[in-house]
Structure formats: structure tokens, C-alpha cells
Amino acid sequence: MTAVLVATHVTAHSRLRLSSLCSPPNSSSAMQMPFKILTCLYLPLILSSVFLPIGGKKTLGIRRATVHFDESLTNIWPLPKQFTSGNLTLTVDPDITVDVQGPGGSSPIVLEAFERYRNLVFKQQSGYALGEHDISKLTVIVASDDDTLQLGVDESYTLYVSDGSEGGGGGRLSIVGGVSIEANTIYGALRGLETLSQLCTYNYKTKTVEVNKAPWYIHDEPRFSFRGLLLDSSRHFLPVNIIKQVIESMSYAKLNVLHWHIIDEESFPLEIPTYPNLWEGSYTKWERYTIEDAYEIVDFAKRRGIHVMAEVDVPGHTVSWGVGYPDLWPSPNCTEPLDFTKEYTFDVISGILTDLRKIFPFELFHLGGDEVHEDCWLSTPHVKDWLEQRNMTTNDAYQYFVLRAQEIALSHNWIPVNWEETFNSFNKSLNPRTVVHNWLGPGVCPKVVANGFRCIVSNQGVWYLDHLDVPWEKFYANEPLDGINDTLQQKLVLGGEVCMWGETADTSDVLQTIWPRAAAAAERLWSPREATSSENLNATVLPRLQHFRCLLNYRGVPAAPVTNLYARQPPIGAGSCFTQ
Question: 221, 266, 371, 420: which is the annotated catalytic residue?
């Protein structure tokens, strides 16, 4: 039997993503339904015949070979900017204490993080290990006690693990011996704690936690200040605890921006006190976020050094708004884009942003602006009359709406972020502070920065997580600065973002869809370009990514196998976590 695997490609932003072979018929595809039914029934069997041992028999009694690791690889993810290591193994005391120094060392954020990481590292070890240990104290020195989390905050740190000898021999590299993390800010200290936690491994023979390859000297800082993950809670409601799990997992890969796509045409789940009927557009009264929920999410993220950038997408993708306030629709037959002819529409937007400014301190606010289907405006008499009276086209109206929304955001001391269609349509009219968010394809950011705007990269062909057929290699190889040679223009690229659109992801599968491919982009955004430019990814990067995926699993994150044909699928056979 010959198996033909069909890979679905998607060209539309958030709406026409991965089509299903098992989707219900429509007027144009009803004739194909028998084939679809057969495909849905037999595709699993075909895949099994391809990937299982000959004859399709279970491998009962057959043992896979023991995995041998390449000890020359550095299993820190993302790879630090600069590091040296040795060949010693040091044991870590499960009762390790922290000595905080400097104005910011005693920050509650730092102290909570120490306890959090200590619990992660020693979760395998029960009781008290007898005898002396090489590492019994961690010194954390933070120069500033300012806990303001803003774009471009200093996330650099220096981590030193001595050779375990008296005094640690640390005089040359560190101001203290033993194990130390030195950072200018609280958030640099958090990144150092994550790296230190990845140096710690559990020895099942001695039942102790060890640091291998000591002594370590690591000086590290991110390549880009914006390292994001979009999470869509409109297409499928995600409970607060799931959003927290996503945020927690982001911190393990040093991602630092949660782009919360809260609202879209399908549902409006967020409470807006000024306009309390807006969340009548939620799926049900149980699938909603209160103001308190939003505060809790933002605070949880801040304690992990992660910004939360909210998005209110206008003027398109707004059907759900009119459930509670029908006057926002141009007509009952034209439910999006929003009605720009009414001042009331902009009053509502202003009210939403006024309420949200109290919750979201991050200086960037996403106003969407993508996929505005203007035909609906022309089919509505009062809208058409409004345009004719002003000698305006629907594209003029699109520009008018986006610029007014930008003015509202700017009045609340927010920097507006817009999807790239706004730049493609009327870039000369955009506010000069606008950050343009690429998604349609490559080659956009070079044009954006050449016009003096800042840019965020999210090319859908390589950084859309709901595109299940995009392998980890493409996530890893996507270079945000491709086509930008001018150093001043390169600085206008804030970074990038992987996007977890929610049509086919909910609580049941969102984390295994995000991970481990998001980690591939995370290293691209954190580590030096020369460190991520290897031509032999399977030898130098894949084993490290598989190791990180296993670390995520160990920490309770259900990251899917790295090398699956399609993302988020379970393993296709027996084997080690470190080879899947």
C-alpha cells in the first residue's frame, strides 16, 4: 500500500489555519466526503504501517539501545552568550541557602524565585542527604532594587560556579567564591537562576543533585529585548491556571512577552467595567475573565520577568462586541468591521483602553488592524452615505479608524502595535511611534525599518505554532535580521514572537502545541547569531533541544516529541525521551 500524506498550508492570518481532513462537508466539498471519511478512518492505520516495525507487531521484549550523550554539547537552553566550563562534578546540598546582597538582592521577586527553583531542582530528592556537599550556599548580588518591568530592561547576569576548593578560586571572575549570580536588575537575577537550575542534574546512583563540568563561568544577556509568545483565549477559552502554566513554561526558555490575544470575533471573555455588557459576547457565562483574573495573570508574569501585552483588535474581528452593544455593528447584516461613522464606537474603545491601562503596565499595546474586510461597509447605506459625503473610500475609512485608535492608545501613554496590513496600506500616515507586527511572510521588516518604524517578526510560514507541519528546524533557522544590513536599522527590530492561535488548541493540547518548537525560536531570539548559525543542526542543536524538551517534561510541561512529522502528536513508538 502506498501512503500519501497531505500537508495542509495556510495563508490566512488567524482564521484559515490548518484545515482538517475530517472537516464537515460544504456545498463545494460534499462530493469529496466519502474520500474524507475513508481518509479519517484509515490514515492512522497507514501511519502505523509506515512507522511501526515490519508486520505492524508490537515490540514486546525488544529493548531499544541505551542512549549515549555527546558530552561536548552544552545543555543550557537557550545557549548563553559567553561561557567556559571544566570537568569536575560538584554535589549540591538540598538545604542550600541563599545569601542576598546589593540593593535588589532581597527583593521578594528574587527570594520567591530562589524557592521556586530550589523546589524544581530537588523535587526528585526526598529527605536529607547525609554527608557534606560541595555547594551549600548561593550568593545573589543585585545592583538595583527597581522592579519596574519595561521593554529593554537589563536581563544580563554573570553566573559563577567555583571548583569547590577553599575560597572557590573566584577572585578573578567573581567578587565572591562558591556559587554566585551577579546582575544589575532583579530580572537579570531571574535569568541567572534559570540557567543555574539547568546546570543541576539528579544522579540516580548517588541520589544527589550535581553540577557537572565545573567550574562554570557564564556571562549572558539576550540578543533581542522582545521575545514573545502569542496566546489566543478567544477561539478557545483558556482557564487562568492554564495561562499561568504557559507563563511558567515561558520563563524556562527565557521568553519575556506574553502577547495575550484576549478578544476576537468568536468571543469577548474579558470584563470591562465601563461597558459591562461587552462580555455578553463570551461563549458562556463560565468562560470569562474578571478584572481580578487579569490582575493576577499580569502579577504572576511579572514575578517571572515576563511582560503581558494585551491586544484589542480593531476594527475587524469584532463580531462579539455587538452581542452586548449592537450599535457597534454597522447593521444586523454587517457585524464587522465596527461602525466608524458613530462617535459612540470610539467612546467604547476609549473606555476599554482606560480600564485596561489600570491592569497592563507594559508600554506596548496591540491594536490589531489586520484582515479588515471593507465590503461590508459599502453594503450598509448610512456608512456608504457617510463616505460619499466626505469623498472617502473604504480604504480611507480603514486608515481613519486605525489612526483614531492609535490616538486613543497614545493618550493613555501606550505605544501602539499594529499588524503589518496597516503599514502595507498607509505607512506614511502611521504614528511614527508605531511598532509594526509582521505576520504575512518574509521581507516585511526590512521595509518597515527602512521607513523608520520598529518591527516585530512573526512570519507565519515559520513562527506560527498552529501550523503543525512546520518542523522545529524552520522555527530555529528563522533569522529576524535577514535582509537588514544597516546596523541602525537592525536596532529597530525589537525581536520576534511565535503565535499560538487557538482555533485548534484548547486546554487539552495547547502546551504540547507550543513546546518544544517555541523553544527553537526562543534560542534564536536570545543567543548570539553566530552561536545559532550551525549548518549541522541535527548534530549540534537537535540533541540539546531534545534534552530541553525532556527537562520541560520533568518539570510538568507536556512538551511533545521534537521530531514528529506533525507537531503535538504523541510518540510513534517506544524510545527514550532524549531521542524523540
Answer: 371
